Amino acid sequence: MKSYSTIPNLQKALQKFKANGKSIAFAPTMGALHQGHIALINRANEIADISVCSIFVNPTQFNVKEDLDKYPRLLEGDSKKLEEAQCDILFHPDEDEVYPDGTDQGIDFDIGYYGEILEAEFRPGHFEGMVQVVSRLLDIVQPDFLIMGQKDFQQFTIVQKLIDFKKINTKLDIIPIARESDGLAMSSRNIRLDKGIRLKADIIHQTLSYVKRRIEIDNVDDLKMYAEKQLNEGPFRMEYFEIVDGFTLQPIEEYEDHGYVVVVTAVWAGEIRLIDNIICKKAL
Ligand code: AMP
């Protein structure tokens, strides 16, 4: 694996591959890599000739400074994991490299109501920051494929809109959620969970799975009430839990009326905020 921290060096390497007709698949991450991230690299290796992973803890997508400061930074261990996963290129720029003109440049894409609902309601500015960094990274890497995880459902929905709007010549590829053996969605934040809370954190996936099992039988409001009770037990505090249309991300009333249905949630587990989702019905 080759590692680069500057754009010219990365682009020189990529240019060589592109000139030889090699396809590039790119997985942007913030590091503290786990099996979910490795699945992105595996997918990249499956569908393209060259896999590129970036590790950059993007300051503009954190609305709480403390969360940014506490975000795990583990470049050495991450490098090893990527090497083992046969990642071809690691790009790990610093802030000045990504934002040479500072971080206040804004974005030239209107996220619309997707930037106001669900995650965005509780993390104002998060998706603007995410769009800012993804646009910038796509501009730098210009990959054939962008690999992202289903774990961040609203994120990839917005990124697809960005790609469509800007007519970017990159195909977005989504991989399923990688989970721990008890069902907890893998996350770089999981290592910060209190031990006792970690043991109970499977409640999130259990609740999502229950809703998926019952959604053709029970009504939506009853399922939401059930979830609200489950996800406010002990150290858990539910921030939102919605059963939404997978395209519009708007809450549904009748399951049968929609071809694509996903259940999305954010839950505080003690001091740590976790997100998860489950697809109940997927349009072909
Ligand atoms: P992050 O480093 O958290 O910004 O995530 C980088 C990419 O990895 C995003 O596309 C995430 O959706 C994806 N990702 C994070 N956790 C998981 C997971 N448990 N399963 C699948 N993809 C994931």
What does this structure look like?
- This protein has 284 residues and is of the alpha/beta class.
- The protein contains 11 helices and 9 strands.
- A 6-stranded parallel sheet has the order 1-4-3-2-5-6, sandwiched between helices. A 3-stranded antiparallel sheet has the order 7-8-9, covered by helices on one side.
- β5, α8 and β6 form a beta-alpha-beta unit.
- α7 packs across α8 and α10 (203-214) runs antiparallel to α11.
- The protein is globular and about 55 Å long.
- The mean pLDDT is 97.
- The site of adenosine monophosphate has 17 residues, from α2 and β5.
Brief overview, please?
This protein is 38% helix and 20% strand. The chain is built from eleven helices and nine strands.
Structure keywords:
3-stranded antiparallel sheet; globular; about 280 residues; 6-stranded parallel sheet; binds adenosine monophosphate; alpha/beta
How much of the sequence lies in strands comes to 15-25%
- The parts where pLDDT drops under 50 for at least 5 residues are none
Indicate the overall shape.
globular
Largest sheet: 6 strands, parallel
Report how far the terminal alpha carbons are from each other.
Answer: 37 Å
Query: If strands are numbered along the chain, what order do they take across the biggest sheet?
Result: 1-4-3-2-5-6
Structural class: alpha/beta
Query: What small-molecule ligands were found?
Result: adenosine monophosphate
How much helix is in the residues?
25-40%
Number of strands: 9
- Helix count, DSSP H or I runs of 4 or more residues: 11
Secondary-structure element pattern, one letter each: EHEHEHHEHHHEHEHHHEEE
Spatial extent as radius of gyration: 19 Å
pLDDT averaged residue by residue: 97
